[in-house]
Amino acid sequence: MVVAIDDKTTATFIPLSGVAEDGWSTEDEATATCLCGTVQLVFPTQGPGLVDRFLCHCADCRKISSSMFCSNFTVADSHLRHARGKEDIKVFRQSRTIATGNDMADHFCGHCGTLLYRVSSGLPGMSILRIGTVDDFRLAETKLRPQVEQFVGTRAAWLTPLEGVMQMERMHTREDIDSLHK
Predict the structure, then answer these.
(1) Which Gene Ontology molecular-function terms are recorded (predicted)?
(2) Full DSSP string of 56-83
(3) pLDDT digit string, tens, across residues 136-155
(4) pLDDT tens, 82-125?
C-alpha cells in the first residue's frame, strides 16, 4: 500500500485519492473529482469566479458530510465546468432544515455518492463546492484556505476556532467578506 506524504516541496500535491488519476491544477483553474472518478469539475482558483471560502458547523453540513463540519468554497456558476459525468449527478433537494428557509439542492455522484456541490435558492448563480473533492490537496492550504468559520455556536466543543479566520454565529454574507478586505 502506498501512502501519500506531502513533503511541501512542490507547488502542487495531487495524491492518489479515489480511482481517478487525472486531477490537475494551474494558476487559474483546478479539478475536483468524486471518489469513483465518474464526475469531474473544473473550477477557478481566483476571482472573480472564486467567490468565497469557509468552514460550516451547521446541522446540515454535519449530517450531509457524516462529520463535524464542512470545508467549502463558493464559485460563480459562469466559471464552473463539468469536465465529465454531468449526466451521472443525482440531486436531493430540501428546505426544511436550512436556517435561512432557502431551498438547497445537493449534487452527488450517482455511482459513489460523493457530494460535489450544493446550490441554494438564496445564492443565485453560485455553487458551493467541497474542498475535500479538490484533487490538488495543496489548494486547501493556499487559495482555498477558509476566510470564515460560520455557525460557530454549534461547533463541537473539542474543535478549536481556526486561527486568523472571521468567526460567525450565523451564515455569513457577502458584506461580511467585503469587510475583511477594508
Answers:
(1) carbon-sulfur lyase activity; metal ion binding
(2) E-SHHHHHHHTSS-EEEEEEEGGG-EEE
(3) 999 999 999 999 998 899 89
(4) 999 999 999 999 887 666 678 889 999 999 999 999 999 888 99
Q: How many domains does the chain have?
A: 1
- Structural domain span for residue 70: 29-180
Contact 83, 33 (CB under 8 A): no
* Cell, residue 95: 428546505
Whether 174 is covered by a domain: the verdict is: yes
CB 20 within 8 Å of CB 33: yes
Q: Residue 126 is part of a domain; what is its CATH number?
A: 3.90.1590.10
Q: Which residue has the cell 455522484?
A: 109
Contacts of residue 102, defined as CB under 8 A and 6 or more positions apart, other chains included, come to 95, 120, 121, 122, 123
Length in residues, the chain: 182
Structure pTM?
A: 0.87
Coil/strand/helix, residue 180 = helix
